[in-house]
Amino acid sequence: MTKPNPALPRHIALIMDGNGRWARSRGLPRNAGHQSGLKTLRKILRSVHHYGIDCVTVFAFSSENWRRPEQEVSLLMDLLVRGLRKHVSELHQRNVRVRFIGNRARLPNELVAQMQHSEELTCNNTGSCLNVAIDYGGQWDVAQAAAAAAKADPHGHVDAESLSRHLSLAEFPDPDLLIRTGGEKRLSNFLLWQLAYTELYFTDVFWPDFSEQHLLAALRSYAERERRFGQVTEVICDGRDKQPEASGFSVIGSGA
Ligand code: IPE
Ligand code: IPE
Ligand code: MG
């Protein structure tokens, strides 16, 4: 018989999708959905950290989102600047280290300055990590890592290990769980390399409606899965019996 995975995810990747449809269903402009989505992010980050999850990587703006109407792109950039300005001190107080991944070259100067400020302010925090992906694409990430790995090698050789050392999230464990809200079942060019063995969780809930209860449902689903990483069940169960139970399991297991 297989056993459930007793651990909480250490690292959650989050595709916060459905803001536009949330707004449309209420007869509101798309930007109202993005504003409401920011409030949801603040709330969910508090819950995530409350459950002792070390690291969250959120998709805020993809390299393909530049294809949206100019006005929406510009409102999103403004919202990112204002959101960071307003909320980074709270994250700092909660001992969260904030980092950004993605290509900064095309972003407005004001946003880049705010990103740098947030990183510098929180760089010595040790509580948990928040990585925010802005103008990020998984293909861009793999390409830049391959180029950097080739440059670092005297013969220009690249292999999976050297490439992975130059990826955006090289210092973090790969995400254990990916949550995508908004009903689409795709990765939309998020962390393509790093999600190789991540457990995927899709929900139809639009991001602004995503609540702590929805988060708990995702964590319960994760806890029930068996992660095999190419191994066979017997070997995993054998190893697991020798490990202490992860601290958060009773929180997730109860009330399922
Ligand atoms: C996600 O919500 C936010 C961003 C991509 C910035 P969407 O804006 O994609 O919302 P839908 O998918 O159109 O509902
Ligand atoms: C993915 O959502 C990007 C973010 C949430 C930032 P999209 O709404 O851009 O994805 P597609 O276009 O539906 O694949
Ligand atoms: Mg979308």
Top keywords for this entry?
single chain, 256 residues, alpha/beta, Undecaprenyl pyrophosphate synthetase, six-stranded parallel beta sheet, 9 helices, 44% helix, binds 3-methylbut-3-enyl trihydrogen diphosphate, binds magnesium ion
Q: Which molecules are bound in this entry?
A: 3-methylbut-3-enyl trihydrogen diphosphate, magnesium ion
Distance, first to last CA: 20 Å
Instruction: List how many beta strands DSSP finds.
Output: 6
Envelope shape: globular
CATH architecture: 3-Layer(aba) Sandwich
What string gives the helices and strands in order? EHHEHEHEHHEEHHH
Count of separate structural domains: 1
State the secondary-structure class. alpha/beta
Counted by DSSP, the helix tally is: 9
Radius of gyration: 19 Å
* CATH topology heading: Undecaprenyl pyrophosphate synthetase
Q: Estimate what percentage of residues fall within beta strands.
A: 5-15%
CATH homologous superfamily designation: Decaprenyl diphosphate synthase-like
Mean pLDDT across every amino acid position: 92
The largest pleated sheet is described as:
6 strands, parallel
